[in-house]
Amino acid sequence: MKHSGLEDEIDSPLKSYCNSSSIRNGKRMTHRKHKSKGISKDEFAKEIQALSLDASSVRGSDAKVIITKCKILAEEIQNSNVANKKKLLQQVAALSEDAQSEDKMEQMCGKFLKRFVLLVTFGPLLLTLFSTVTERLMRQSINVVVPPLDGMNAIVTGGCGDLGSRVVVQLAEAGCNVVAACRNNLQSLAQKPAVFESFERFEEGQVQVWPLDLDDFSSVESFANRYLNSSANGLDILIHAAGVKEDEDEGCTRTKDGYDLTLQVNYLSPVLLSQKLIPALRKGGDGGRITYVTCSEGLKLPDLLPWPFRRYPVSSLPSLEPIMNQKETTCSPRVQYMNSKLAVVAHSHDLDRRLDRSPRNMLITSNAVDPGALDNRLGRSLTKGIPKRQSLRSQLLGWFPPVWLMVMIFDTF
Questions:
Q1: Which in 141, 164, 347, 353 has the greatest CB count within 10 A?
Q2: Do the beta carbons of residue 180 and residue 262 sit within 8 Å?
Q3: What is the pLDDT of residue 374?
Q4: Are residues 101 and 231 in the same domain?
Q5: What whole-number distance in Å separates Cα of residue 397 and Cα of residue 384?
């Protein structure tokens, strides 16, 4: 007798299992076409009952196996001489319909799960890519024109760094007298001959390099006192371009003042230096300008997406609470960096409000600026730094081949 196309799709081990699987009364289903006429009605009823129990059991056979068993049993009943053959066939047909409905449900669930896994895996990546592309397309072109700054005085912290040295050169080219505040100024310039040559091409006094260690409050006070005692013309521009982010493997270190290194260099010392130099900023011609260089990492907000789509854990978002309450928590250099940059933005906004309300300081302004992504050591460390406390999604899918491959490509380029 010919079998249907569905039976042809089932492999021979499955057919063998279906034809020889045990039933409740201990008998086995075999190829009994030649002796199906001798099977009684009660035996068929027991087989139908056993098949029904197998189909309804959580640990029972797969729906496709139940369908195949029903077809084989229906053939045997059709070839037998038992009475009420029609009733038995109806019972088998009902079992087969239920199994077919279950099989359709399993196929729908399988498709849903596949799409769900793909969405959970690539959804956050596509969201990140979409936000980046949208920002690029909507970004307005900026034409930077440096006005003449002849006779003005400026201080740039981190003046020997990648970003600070370029700011120093631009200010000096505009005619400004610049003090480049560098940590261990001689060592910094010796390690960067290109920066040294850039500073050397200006007239004497136009670019000066002074030592300043932001991880030491006494150094900040000495620098401020030196400038207040040596400059009679006051201060027009104060730019805080210095910044630090420790490597994740090295962890968080403490300064001799007892504070976290990242927090003190990026936030506490710049605030102290600004406060110390307020008298010099009052003497500025058109009013002093304080500029803090911040980072978009410090302004990161929760994406408000449910767990499977969450791109980063809530614990890795910037917050002022650890700084305000001085909580001892598990330290991550990346989180400390973001917290310090958020604190800088909050301080700059509050400082500008306070200066505007003070009659003596109304001409002094405070600003925070984000230069964007930079191809330097600090910028590259921000893209590769991973918080120690990852989200559950990151832990589960971090080693998934497509995700791992895209992360490697991103870190490389």
A1: 164
A2: no
A3: 62
A4: no
A5: 18
CA-to-CA distance for 87 and 176, rounded, in angstroms?
Answer: 102
Q: Is residue 191 part of a domain?
A: no
pTM confidence score: 0.59
How would DSSP label each residue in 314-337? GGGS--SHHHHHT------HHHHH
Look up residue 221 and give its two tokens. 């006070």
Count of residues making up the chain: 413
18: in domain: yes
CB atoms within 10 A of CB 246: 21
Burial class (CB in 10 A: 0-12, 13-18, 19+), 407: middle
Contacts 24+ apart (CB under 8 A), 310-315: 310/124, 310/391, 310/393, 311/124, 311/127, 311/128, 312/387, 312/391, 312/394, 313/387, 313/389, 313/390, 313/391, 313/394, 315/387, 315/389
Q: How many CB atoms lie within 10 A of CB 173?
A: 14
Looking at the fold, whether 96 and 219 belong to one and the same domain comes out as no
- In DSSP notation, 130-148 reads HHHHHHHHHPPP----PPP
CB atoms within 10 A of CB 238: 28
Kind plus residue range of the DSSP H or E element containing 155: strand 153-157
Compute the C-alpha angle 31/32/37, nearest 5°.
160
326 conformational bin, left if phi > 0, alpha if psi -120 to 50, beta if neither = left
pLDDT tens sequence across 96-119? 888 888 888 888 998 998 888 888
Q: 101 with 228, same domain?
A: no
Query: Tell me, what amino acid is at 367?
Result: N
Task: Read off the pLDDT of each residue in 198-206 and give the average, rounded to a whole number.
Answer: 76
The residues that bridge with 207 in the sheet, in sequence order, are 178
Rounded to an integer, the average pLDDT of 39-65 is 82
Count of the separate structural domains present in the chain: 2
Do 102 and 228 sit in the same domain of this protein?
A: no
Rounded to a whole number, what is the distance in angstroms from the first to the last CA of the chain? 64
CA distances from 3 to 68, 86, 308, 398 (A): 10, 21, 45, 47
Q: For residue 33, give its domain range.
A: 5-107
In our burial notation (b when 16+ CB lie closer than 10 A, e otherwise), range 328-338 reads: eeeebbbbbbb
